[in-house]
């Protein structure tokens, strides 16, 4: 990620270690200027950040080789080490005292907390009842000479240990030179298995990591060096887990723990001297992947700036609607959106202009990711290929399309005058008898054809590429066309103006012949105080007649005070037969 260099500098200056200082964002509009960096001042941590994880809290990591590492925060916490088999019951007992941070499991696993399978075999399953086995094992681990219970000198012990474990084929101790061990690369591969899940037994994921902080001078450094990091200088305890305690208890001793925790410790330490119930100090590291989009952006953008938190998606494309104030940071914002929404999102675009062309296509600028604007949208089990650069698509209308479809029956013949790539026409074709779909945009028609085939509905749809007015004329005049029962006119800016095309569509039909008056569903916008009345008036003017029993449906607010509406009514007979 090479996009953050300068904002990173700001983070470095604005976030201090664990002292819980909060640096307000520089008011300067230049996030990148040195002035902005030095403008950072300290203040106390605001109330809403005083609890729970925050980028404004914790220590910064000592590794800061990449921009992402600048978002690493290390938190000192305390944990209760408990036997693995009891951790779930204790978790529910102690829930109110546990860390309970979002996306962090209260039960953590760290290196060395599991007994190796081979060792399990060696000591048997029931370690707590077999005292002799345990004593022998403890001698091996803590370096006491068998028989006398005294400590051996390091050299002798090391030698003995190497021989002992070698002879029984015990290969887990990574630092024993004589024993072959898997190559580093292989370990790495194992760490991330297929779906990205983490290697068993290690408290590291791509979001967070828990490590036990070793006490200094515990006296067994020699053996740790020999046996590797998995070797723990604590009494033998079988498989254990860490129950991460609430941040209030960080760096606290047993006396300061709540009664519930003290009771657990007391109860078990009385019961057994072998099982490990102990308080340990830990480091919880939250990595870049842990933080959510808005948390990262909040740190990167100047204080007071609205953090873009929502975007529309069309297939693999995230579609932002950035404000003017965001423009200097558009690439930065897009990169974070991409990072935080991978792999679903592969491209981030911003709308550069309001839609004002005939084909209703958007002017888009690709800000991050791959530059292809051809994508596939799945809506209600149907597949739609879309080229956002050349055709219209709006995922927000999915619910409205469903509502409209619910008005159709399997006896209907639908005519979609402004069909685009076919979200209404193709979905209707699945349900109704037949569909006539039209669009003026040749690109939309190409995708409409493609989508019909893709959804195996090409036999139920006939496609046209002409102006809507001409299409209405010709489809109703055609002798071959089936009698149309439903007409959809989804071009909200202008569709009402096309309604005059229905005047006289049956003028050449004999009045005594059977005919079907189509039900029209026309979309429009209104900024009026009473949008329904206003739209009704537009329809009356376009038809030069009053349509009765008009059902008005408010689709959604497209801008403050601007409604998108759908009016549904049966074409008045007087209009259809007008001369
Ligand atoms: C708002 S889009 C709706 C498309 C589709 N119904 C949907 O929901 O995605 C309007 C469509 O009408 C088409 N269009 C614009 N003017 C037209 C005209 N005069 N005649 C026919 N189609 C037109 C545009 O190309 C565009 O695809």
Notes on the structure:
With 579 residues, the chain is an alpha+beta fold. The chain folds into four domains: 5-71, no CATH class; 76-284, no CATH class; 308-372, Met-10+ protein-like domains (GMP Synthetase, Chain A, domain 3, 2-Layer Sandwich); 395-576, Rossmann fold, CATH 3.40.50.150. Helices cover 28% and strands 20% of the residues. The longest helix is centred in the N-terminal third of the chain and has 14 residues, at 154-167. It is elongated and about 115 Å long. 33% of the residues are buried. The model is unreliable at 1-43, 176-182, 186-202 and 217-234 (pLDDT under 50). The protein binds S-adenosylmethionine. Residues 358-360, 392-394, 397, 418-420, 423-424, 438-441, 444, 467-468, 490-491 line the site of S-adenosylmethionine.
Topology:
Layout: H1 5-14, E1 21-22, H2 34-38, E2 43-44, E3 59-60, E4 73-83, H3 87-93, E5 107-108, H4 117-123, H5 131-142, H6 154-167, H7 184-191, E6 192-193, E7 197-198, E8 208-212, H8 221-227, E9 240-244, H9 259-271, E10 278-286, H10 293-300, E11 312-314, E12 317-320, H11 330-341, E13 347-353, E14 363-369, E15 374-379, E16 382-387, H12 398-405, E17 413-416, H13 423-431, E18 434-438, H14 442-454, E19 461-464, H15 468-477, E20 486-489, E21 519-526, H16 531-543, E22 551-559, E23 562-570, H17 573-576
Parallel strand pairs: 12-13, 17-18, 17-20, 18-19, 20-21
Antiparallel strand pairs: 1-2, 3-4, 4-9, 4-10, 5-9, 6-7, 8-10, 11-12, 13-14, 15-16, 21-23, 22-23
Helix pairs in contact: 10-11, 12-13
The protein binds S-adenosylmethionine (SAM).
S-adenosylmethionine binds at residues 358-360, 392-394, 397, 418-420, 423-424, 438-441, 444, 467-468, 490-491.
Protein name: tRNA (guanine(37)-N1)-methyltransferase
Keywords: Cytoplasm, Methyltransferase, Mitochondrion, Nucleus, S-adenosyl-L-methionine, Transferase, tRNA processing
Subunit structure: Monomer.
């Amino acid at each position: 990620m090479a996009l953050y260099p300068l904002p990173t500098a700001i983070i470095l200056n604005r976030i201090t270690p664990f002292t819980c200082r909060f640096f307000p964002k520089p008011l300067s509009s230049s996030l990148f200027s040195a002035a902005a960096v030095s403008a950072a001042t300290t203040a106390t941590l605001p109330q809403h950040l005083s609890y729970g994880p925050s980028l404004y809290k914790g220590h910064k990591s000592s590794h800061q080789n990449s921009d992402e590492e600048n978002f690493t925060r290390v938190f000192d916490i305390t944990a209760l080490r408990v036997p693995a088999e009891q951790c779930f019951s204790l978790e529910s007992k102690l829930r109110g005292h546990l860390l309970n941070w979002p996306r962090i499991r209260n039960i953590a696993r760290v290196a060395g907390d599991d007994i190796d399978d081979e060792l399990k075999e060696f000591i048997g399953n029931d370690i707590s009842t077999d005292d002799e086995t345990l004593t022998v094992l403890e001698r091996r681990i803590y370096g006491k000479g068998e028989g006398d219970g005294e400590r051996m000198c390091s050299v002798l012990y090391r030698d003995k240990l190497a021989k002992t474990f070698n002879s029984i084929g015990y290969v887990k101790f990574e630092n024993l030179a004589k024993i072959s061990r898997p190559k580093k690369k292989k370990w790495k591969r194992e760490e991330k298995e297929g779906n990205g899940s983490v290697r068993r037994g290690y408290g590291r994921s791509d979001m967070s990591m828990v490590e036990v902080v070793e006490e200094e001078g515990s006296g067994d450094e020699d053996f740790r060096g020999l046996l590797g990091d998995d070797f723990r200088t604590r009494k033998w305890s079988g498989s254990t887990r860490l129950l991460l305690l609430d941040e209030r208890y960080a760096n606290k001793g047993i006396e300061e723990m709540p009664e519930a925790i003290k009771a657990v410790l007391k109860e078990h330490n009385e019961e057994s001297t072998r099982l490990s119930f102990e308080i340990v100090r830990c480091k919880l590291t939250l990595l870049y992947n842990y933080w959510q989009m808005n948390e990262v952006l909040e740190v990167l953008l100047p204080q007071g700036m609205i953090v873009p938190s929502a975007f529309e998606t069309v297939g693999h494309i995230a579609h932002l609607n950035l404000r003017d104030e965001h423009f200097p940071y558009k690439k930065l914002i897009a990169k974070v959106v991409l990072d935080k929404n991978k792999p679903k999102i592969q491209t981030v675009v911003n709308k550069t202009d309001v839609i004002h062309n005939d084909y209703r296509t958007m002017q888009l600028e690709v800000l991050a990711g791959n530059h292809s604007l051809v994508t596939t949208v799945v809506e209600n089990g149907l597949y739609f290929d879309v080229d956002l650069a050349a055709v219209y698509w709006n995922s927000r209308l999915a619910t409205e399309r469903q509502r409209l479809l619910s008005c159709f029956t399997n006896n209907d013949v639908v005519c979609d005058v402004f069909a685009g790539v076919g979200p209404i026409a193709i979905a209707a074709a699945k349900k109704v008898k037949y569909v006539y779909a039209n669009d003026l945009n040749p690109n939309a028609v190409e995708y409409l054809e493609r989508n019909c085939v893709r959804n195996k509905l090409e036999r139920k749809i006939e496609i046209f590429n002409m102006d809507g007015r001409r299409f209405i004329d010709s489809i109703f005049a055609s002798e071959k066309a089936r009698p149309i029962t439903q007409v959809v006119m989804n071009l909200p800016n202008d569709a009402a103006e096309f309604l005059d095309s229905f005047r006289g569509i049956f003028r050449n039909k004999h009045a005594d012949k059977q005919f079907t008056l189509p039900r029209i569903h026309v979309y429009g916008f209104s900024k009026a105080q009473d949008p329904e009345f206003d739209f009704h008036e537009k329809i009356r003017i376009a038809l030069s007649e009053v349509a009765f029993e008009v059902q008005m449906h408010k689709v959604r607010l497209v801008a403050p005070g601007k409604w998108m509406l759908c009016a549904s009514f049966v074409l008045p007979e007087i209009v259809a037969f007008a001369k």
